[in-house]
């Protein structure tokens, strides 16, 4: 796999050559590099819908979960605790995962049920209290599809499936083991069958040998 910098240099050279051959005015290689680099780090447009307040917000999130200052303020306000009104920044890795999910499903609206929770009834070790968790759904997309996508792609995560409540919980938990569960009838059932199935390596494709001769 080529390093990103080497890819950028190759792409820059190719674009510079193409520009020189198609344009009467040569485009400086430095300008081309900026254009290529800008495309590579282009933030993802994410549409968020607060199911509690019935508010829609469109934000730009970088692939690593970082944002500009204005967006950071907007996200803190949007994801604030509904019981206390207090705000806390959501972890970059959690935002990166959420933005990736949005992109994977063609930029569909993320309908979130809960994010930061700072009430007295929230456990001190809760990822919601730490700003590392979001409960959400994507209308028109099966929860099981999102569930398996996140669980298969990411490590250091928690993924909880709430089929009756119709939402999915995701959180980042660096330094801790991955945890998956299904919530049913008021109980978390850990190590569910779907978690093992989603991470099973694909079976090798057996190609039958062609018989030669008679």
Q: Give the low-pLDDT segments.
A: 1-39
Continuous helix count: 6
Helical amount: 25-40%
Mean pLDDT value? 86
Global morphology: globular
Largest sheet geometry:
8 strands, mixed
Q: Tell me the fraction of residues in β-strands, as a range.
A: 15-25%
Strand order of the largest sheet: 2-1-3-4-6-5-7-8
Description:
It is a single chain. With 214 residues, the protein is of the alpha+beta class. Helix content is 33%, strand content 21%. The chain has helices at residues 4-22, 29-40, 69-78, 92-104, 143-153, 193-198; strands at 44-50, 55-61, 110-114, 133-137, 157-162, 167-172, 179-184, 187-190. An eight-stranded mixed beta sheet has the order 2-1-3-4-6-5-7-8. Strand 7 and strand 8 form a beta hairpin. The protein is globular.
Please describe the topology of this protein:
Elements: H1 4-22, H2 29-40, E1 44-50, E2 55-61, H3 69-78, H4 92-104, E3 110-114, E4 133-137, H5 143-153, E5 157-162, E6 167-172, E7 179-184, E8 187-190, H6 193-198
Parallel strand pairs: 1-3, 5-7
Antiparallel strand pairs: 1-2, 3-4, 4-6, 5-6, 7-8
């Amino acid at each position: 796999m080529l390093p990103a910098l080497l890819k950028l240099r190759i792409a820059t050279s190719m674009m510079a050559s193409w520009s020189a051959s198609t344009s009467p005015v040569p485009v400086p290689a430095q300008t081309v590099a900026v254009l290529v680099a800008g495309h590579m780090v282009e933030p993802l447009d994410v549409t968020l819908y607060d199911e509690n307040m019935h508010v829609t917000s469109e934000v730009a999130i970088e692939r690593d979960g970082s944002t500009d200052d204005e967006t950071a303020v907007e996200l803190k306000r949007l994801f604030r605790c509904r019981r206390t009104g207090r705000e806390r920044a959501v972890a970059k890795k959690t935002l990166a995962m959420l933005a990736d999910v949005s992109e994977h499903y063609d930029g569909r609206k993320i309908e979130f049920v809960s994010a930061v929770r700072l009430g007295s009834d929230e456990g001190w070790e809760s990822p919601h209290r730490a700003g590392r968790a979001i409960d959400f759904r994507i209308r028109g997309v099966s929860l099981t599809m999102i569930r398996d996508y996140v669980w298969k792609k990411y490590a250091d995560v928690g993924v909880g499936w709430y089929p009756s409540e119709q939402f999915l919980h995701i959180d980042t938990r660096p330094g801790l083991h991955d945890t998956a569960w299904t919530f049913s009838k008021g109980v978390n059932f850990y190590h569910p069958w779907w978690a093992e199935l989603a991470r099973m390596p694909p079976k090798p494709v057996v190609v039958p040998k062609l018989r030669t001769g008679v």
